Automatic annotation (TrEMBL):
It comes from Qipengyuania mesophila. This is TldD/PmbA family protein. InterPro entries: Metalloprtase-TldD/E_C, Metalloprtase-TldD/E_cen_dom, Metalloprtase-TldD/E_N, PmbA, TldD/PmbA_N, TldD/PmbA_sf. Residues 123-224 form the Metalloprotease TldD/E central domain. Belongs to the peptidase U62 family. Residues 231-447 form the Metalloprotease TldD/E C-terminal domain. Pfam families: PmbA_TldD_1st, PmbA_TldD_2nd, PmbA_TldD_3rd. SUPFAM superfamilies: Putative modulator of DNA gyrase, PmbA/TldD. PANTHER family: METALLOPROTEASE PMBA (PTHR43421:SF1). Residues 26-90 form the Metalloprotease TldD/E N-terminal domain.
Amino acid sequence: MIGVDAALARCHELVDLARRMGADAADAVARASSSESVGVRLGALEEVERSESEEVGLRVFVGRRSASINTSDFAPEGLELLAQRAVEMARLAPEDPYGGLAPSEALFAGEPRDLDLVDAAAPAPEELRAAALATEDAARAVAGVTNSNGGSASYSRSVFALVTSNGFARGHAGGSHSLSASVVAGEGGDKQTDYAYRTQRHRSDLPDPAEIGREAGERAVRKLAPVSIPSGRMPVVFDPRVGGGVLGHLLGAMGAPSIARKASFLIGREQDQLFDTAIKVLEDPHRLRGLRSRNYDGEGVASVPRALVDAGQVTGWLTNVASAAQLGLQLSGHASRGSGGAPGISVGNVYLEAGEPSVAELIADIEDGLYVTDLFGQGVNLVTGDYSRGASGLRIRGGELAEPVAEITIAGTLPDMFRALVPADDLEFQRGIDVPTFRIDGMAIAGT
């Protein structure tokens, strides 16, 4: 796999070629990745995989017209043909009054922070196999587990580089280590499957494989002999593993492209009290070893820590160049970038700030409620804010977790859910979007 310097050189070459072909402005993105994974099942080696990929994308502007194209052909004649075709395509494209490069004054400058995103040690395949076996063994050792879908361990590295014709040229490397297990509990007609996984930038930050395996096994066993639940309204408590999705819906609706398309339920709610005044949603793109840490976004604009929700109110929309121009907003450093196509929107490490009550205290006064551990389906409308998902989890009775429940639907509207949201104190940083356990009263439950 190429390094950062080689990726930058490739991008510089493409931008120079595009300018020579007649582009008024251009930027180029290079991506490369490599990964190794080992999978086991029932204690035996099942698969060993290694993959590598490299790709470069070029975006060119001819006046207000633009085009983008990408390739994995890095021969000099291939890159020259790529630049020529991109410029030809741009000349035929319709005018876009909002597209363009980020202005020079908005580009990240200075010395980038060392975010410690690369683990220098790369595990050998034998080490990956041992970790996968240990993870699956711990899951299979849980009483009630009867079969396994397998355990896996993997390691990956990646390189990203961005060069623009107005002076930005930066690149960085990243890496990750993952462990997972998925097992089956029960016999006959009552079989349940669940999983556990962790991903970290550094292998030393991963939990012990036995911890991940036990979690997978215990989650599967906890689902055995599920029942339904009477329909009605009741408090619903979201496990952190699924609660991050609710926060993800908020972030999707805050994207300025959605606002510009009139496709967000947040339009007109900029000054509304969406959450309780104690609620904060924070973004920390500079967290050391964070899964979404970065110094700059996909257009070269600086990424900075900020509150996305403060005192219960959204603090602004998440912009890239095109959406900021369309709405007359400042750049927020939230552009995402693939090898081809126009930039989208992405966030750094986002989390819902922890509350004061423990999980036990959060549910202590719930006489009859639902603790959700799994969500299914795509019943979320970010235009209207309507929310309806299939769910399973545990019944809450008398302030305690009780029997497993399944084949139910939970429903509400996102604004109503946000207003009622109460977080617990168990926030952990495990994903790109992290939340503590949280409670939402008054959700509609469709069961028996």
